[in-house]
Amino acid sequence: xxxxxxxxxxxxxxxxxxxxxxxxxxxxxxxxxxxxxxxxxxxxxxxxxxxxxxxxxxxxxxxxxxxxxxxxxxxxxxxxxxxxxxxxxxxxxxxxxxxxxxxxxxxxxxxxxxxxxxxxxxxxxxxxxxxxxxxxxxxxxxxxxxxxxxxxxxxxxxxxxxxxxxxxxxxxxxxxxxxxxxxxxxxxxxxxxxxxxxxxxxxxxxxxxxxxxxxxxxxxxxxxxxxxxxxxxxxxxxxxxxxxxxxxxxxxxxxxxxxxxxxxxxxxxxxxxxxxxxxxxxxxxxxxxxxxxxxxxxxxxxxxxxxxxxxxxxxxxxxxxxxxxxxxxxxxxxxxxxxxxxxxxxxxxxxxxxxxxxxxxxxxxxxxxxxxxxxxxxxxxxxxxxxxxxxxxxxxxxxxxxxxxxxxxxxxxxxxxxxxxxxxxxxxxxxxxxxxxxxxxxxxxxxxxxxxxxxxxxxxxxxxxxxxxxxxxxxxxxxxxxxxxxxxxxxxxxxxxxxxxxxxxxxxxxxxxxxxxxxxxxxxxxxxxxxxxxxxxxxxxxxxxxxxxxxxxxxxxxxxxxxxxxxxxxxxxxxxxxxxxxxxxxxxxxxxxxxxxxxxxxxxxxxxxxxxxxxxxxxxxxxxxxxxxxxxxxxxxxxxxxxxxxxxxxxxxxxxxxxx
Length: 660
What we know:
With 660 residues, this protein is an alpha/beta fold.
């Protein structure tokens, strides 16, 4: 049965498949000749999956892809010359040479990126689909992934959330029989398509080496998903001709069996035979072949002739430009007659005001519609229907929701219930949110905020007390904010939500009930600017979050001893306000850094290194760090008190540097 409408459509599909094939063969040869650097994974044999699956796609539809994604992006419309230039690392590449083979993207064409992390595109697809559903224009997302991704947690979290929210996603699994070097049958206890049933999701299996079977079979799926009935799981069975990577000797495959499979199931051979049956002669097919090879020749010529990126551009595209606020937004203005309110209510007010100011802002996370674990967001769901959303306990899906929806133009504020839970979703923050602007060559901004909280001192134990800001600050592309006062919490959170970068907003739960005045709605704290909360002349104390409060207490004690301490509250951990720190250190010539985190390998170490490098000629005494002992937070109160630090420890450290 011929499934596409006419021979012309089949011929068009054939030409697209041939373009992918010839491009991949050329890429393989160029890689062997050391013209293409890095790693390369080709999709030879899988051309019908990409072309058939995207036959019915709109430009405004989104795809997420895999490390084997060349076919997907070409089928979606990416220009061959820009793809080839990207693989050669040239400035004319789709991503200005920042992405490479595994990370090709072009958001203007709905290509939200191939991905070097198995399964990582699936939570991002959830975010893009959420944004598409909210726009209500009938767009959808096709999330390509391989059979190996079925075993990842990201797959299950994404499937669950998409099914729960009835998001417009086609989950398209290209089952080529191998997960890297292992046979698929050795990796999964049940058939791949059976996984969809666990989420109440419809599934179909298509013959992935027959472009007509794929295009015809997926046509009603597009209509169904665009119609709002929720996601569908599509498995396409296909063939991987080359190994997991270019150069893979494939010792794990039977060579004779592989040869037979390739000859029997080559999608180009199948389609060429169908075209002949429809009366399309070899003369026409030869012209198509000649045209495709000319396109690939030109793509290679263009890429070879294109310049390398300027070495001086190495720091470009890491962050979007920061918003500059007029002076009137930087002065705290409060109602003199207003009652002091808790910091938790001030944070809620910042969220409320942000939701009211911008319809693209939404909140999502575990139990946020009910108020969150501290009741901080209580009432917002009723005030903003459809914009304050409870999610399952699926931290990777939550972060992917933020990434994908931010790429699609929304301003998500998602909640990570405890900072300690960072480990279960770090990929979406470290490898996706932080890097996607850079790896797309500045093609996207990611205006998202992750609110979370931490704090020791209440016997929360080793898995609910950690101060992990150093880990996050070590990731280029992330912004890390840690307010101490109520005013700063408001001003920083409003600035974070308005910023075009991924921001980690870390609150201290033991400051939630500390009361202060609520700033005006116009107040903003500029990101990257520390505050001198107490001027002094003898020693500089650098601190942040609750330790900034402890530093002020310590400074008062030191005053009674005749020591005039200057206290700096960083407020922003990354980017670090080095100028304010060094200016203060240049006057006092002594420094103590106080952090709640364990002292080893922390932010304090970075500040100390800066002091003895850039500030070397101001150094009159050792730079001393104050922090928790290098151990997990103990549970027993007596042990926790011994482990953590407070004002007395800061006082002792200042006395030490003053004695030198």
